[in-house]
């Protein structure tokens, strides 16, 4: 279902992580993409948590955008914190954090970060069909 798009802003608070996850599930169910709701909600949960934890004090909001293009669900989370660009880490077995982008990387067809005038956007591509190959 290409050609759909939805953007919403959430306050920089921990309760916004679960609110953004519910928003993803509701939106995708409405678009007939319920099969992507669980992985997309997990991706958004990780990215929203990163925004809330690392960009707090910089801005009041983060923005979540969902769009469908050419058989791919595009998830974008934008915040105003440019000096903390996310990187795929290698946490040790005793580390309590640092696994969020590993989860995103495992679920995504592709992902990346792009700077904005005031901040950054982390984008993730999730294939609409289970038959799509990873890494495209």
TrEMBL record:
Domain Histidine kinase/HSP90-like ATPase stretches: 16-124
GO function terms (MF aspect): ATP binding
Keywords of this entry: ATP-binding, Kinase, Nucleotide-binding, Serine/threonine-protein kinase, Transferase
Superkingdom of this protein's organism: Bacteria
InterPro entries given in the database record: Anti-sigma-factor_SerPK, HATPase_C_sf, HATPase_dom
UniProt protein name: ATP-binding protein
Taxonomic placement: Bacteria, Bacillati, Actinomycetota, Actinomycetes, Kitasatosporales
């Amino acid at each position: 279902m290409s050609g759909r798009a939805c953007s919403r802003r959430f306050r920089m608070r921990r309760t916004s992580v679960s609110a953004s996850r519910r928003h993803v599930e509701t939106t995708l169910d409405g678009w007939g993409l319920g099969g992507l709701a669980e992985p997309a909600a997990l991706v958004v949960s990780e990215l929203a948590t990163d925004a809330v934890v690392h960009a707090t004090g910089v801005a009041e909001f983060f923005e979540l955008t969902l769009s469908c293009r050419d058989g791919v669900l595009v998830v974008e989370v934008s915040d105003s914190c440019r000096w903390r660009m996310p990187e795929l880490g290698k946490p040790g077995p005793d580390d309590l954090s640092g696994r969020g982008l590993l989860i995103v990387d495992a679920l995504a067809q592709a992902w990346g970060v792009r700077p904005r005038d005031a901040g950054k956007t982390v984008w993730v591509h999730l294939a609409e069909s289970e038959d799509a190959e990873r890494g495209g």
